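Entry for the shared binder. Reason: the reviewer on the internal report wants the predicted structure included alongside the sequence.
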Amino acid sequence: MKTKILLITMATTCLMVACSSDDETMPEQKLPISVDVTENPMTNPDGTQTRTAIATAVTSPFYMVGKNTNYTVTKGSTTWSLSPDYWPIGVSSTDDVLFCAYTGGEYNAGGGNPFISFTVSSDAYSQRDLLVASTTTSQSANNGRVDLTFDHACAAVYFTIAKTAKLADYTIHVSDVQLCNVNSKGNYKFSDSSWDDLNTPTSYTLNTAVDMVVTTTPKRLPSEESTDYLFLIPQVLTGWDKSGEPSNCYIKMTCNITGAKTFSGDAYIPFTLTLEKGKSYPIEISIGTGLRDGSGNKIF
């Protein structure tokens, strides 16, 4: 009888040990990940590529999100390094993962429709373009390599200023040239590469010189030696209709004009333009008979 009790006790002990072993969780295997980065250049509105200086290089670091894993990607001498340096945990090597990459702004998961909340700097010439990329791939497809092709999500604009031939005999000095009432905040959606929820009209100072002599030869802003661009959120800029006080979008400048007529004070030019992402726009501010005062009256 004692022998039977001993055997039952031993069997129960073995069963408990086996159950304890089955409950232990093995650590997740960390699969390797890497990125390959390319960038589409900006183009002119007619589709031709701009010169390479306009095609802003992908900044380092940039950021990437995949399956709730946030990566910081930094450029080394020849390759890009990721932190963390492994494929999203808990994902099979054959399962597809959506990766979204961006160079600035704030990432939002958007309930499965990710977007970037982005604000353009109010300092016109310290701005950086927003570059974005997204792709869906599995770890096994390219041995963990994520191929990213970045696009420019903003529009690039540069300004020159000149007077028309009709005012050739006038002496014109300008300062404090501003582009007024351009939305500076919005959301870029990865799903269809579009922008929405544009808001916060902002004015941008285009020249840094206290005083600039305007001739019939166009001069680049903010200075003649400048190669700077404004990077603006794509939008439709509707110009002031020249009635009443300036509204909608317009160019404002302080002018001192002498000649057959004289004028000193703030002057305005309506500004209308459709900005598209990935496009570069050369804009000439032409001082001529279209110049208006603050009440919409022609100055000349």
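Summary line for the report: The first strand starts at residue 34 and ends at 39.
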